[in-house]
Amino acid sequence: MATPAVPNLTAPRPTPAGRRDLATLPKAHLHLHFTGAMRPTTMVDMARAQGVRLPPHLLHIDAASMPADGRGWFRFQRAYDSARHLVRSEAAMRRLIREAAEDDAAEGSVRMEIQADPTSYAPYVGGITPALEIIIDEARAASRDTGVDIGVIVAASRMKHPLDARTLARLAASFAGDGPGDVVAFGLSNDERVGSTASFAPAFRIARRAGLVGVPHGGELLGPSSVREVVSTLAPARLGHGVRTSEDPDLLNAVVDAGIALEVCPTSNVHLGVYTDFSQVPLPILLSAGATVALAADDPLLFRSRLVAQYEVARDVFGLSDEAPGRPGALLYRRVAGLALAQGGLEGRHRRLVGGACGVVFVRGAPTAQTTSTTDGSHADRL
């Protein structure tokens, strides 16, 4: 196998003079896929151990880039599957969770929610229940060892039958909780253009009855009509991506009024062709409308970009504040979708986040404002 040029995604990068090192900013990482969280070096290690020849594009240091059409998604999914097929043991699954937690800790995360479809790994560990138990067990251990509070999201796939989603929802419900490693939410991922959103509503009702919040993808590859359908049929607490809500001001206002948070992944949006460059990502529009936004990396393995890089985009492309702790604008946590968040300054204590709907957030008001009151009387800034 050719020696790959694989980056260290958490290597410290130079901080511009007079600017804060954004790795010191406490963050919640709420949109992170299980296989997509794999380190590039781990992918290479696993491929070598199994004698697998990886596709050339997975060995290149540049991020994957695809057009936002069916062909582009096929290329993306093929790359993702190439990496996922390397995860064929309990040890491999545990390694992914552990390293993702370590990488998030290095970037200042205090909360990480990782979403997985256990059916992808079930054949190698004796079924979907053992697969989820392995993820939960390692998430608990990694939470203890790294200090990152980890929640697990069980995510169904649009590419599979809605009855499969119901099976996953029942499994997720049996492990629901608010402790480290517990299942905190139920999601729906993969190509937004495939399948009927409404057909997955029964699975989300099962999850809600167990106290799990809904965090489906929506408003990424399709526009406002898709968001409306997701919101009306799945009753989400957060939208995975949700950026194309910005194309309809009335819809965006409705999402804001409903308290639905948005998980915005700028690098993913650019590399999947949703936007041609970072300046087109509608973060200022979302913030100006009062949206609650949590930045996330989505699939660092394929996009070669982790969490801090998303905050750098917010600061350096859109000019959002990175005031030092203790000054006006120092970021505090706030409530998202009515569920409890930690409260405390950047240097402050972190108490465990509850309910799977937390976020280091950009709160209501214009992006240029530095401090805004939150619903619980605390304050939060942009960065």
Strand proportion: 5-15%
Main beta sheet strand tally, sense and closure: 5 strands, parallel
User: Helix-strand pattern, N to C?
Assistant: EHHHEHHEHEHEEHEHEHHEHHEEE
Helix count equals 13
Count of separate structural domains: 1
What structural class do you assign from the helix and strand content? alpha/beta
Which strands sit side by side, in order, in the main sheet?
Answer: 1-2-3-4-5
What percentage of residues falls in helices of 4 or more residues? Answer: 25-40%
Number of strands: 12
Q: Can you tell me the overall shape?
A: globular
Give the CATH superfamily.
Metal-dependent hydrolases
Average pLDDT works out at 80
The N- and C-terminal alpha carbons lie at a distance of 42 Å
CATH class division? Alpha Beta
Q: Rg to the nearest angstrom?
A: 19 Å
What is the CATH architecture term? Alpha-Beta Barrel
CATH topology: TIM Barrel
Query: Any low-confidence stretches, pLDDT <50, length ≥5?
Result: 324-383
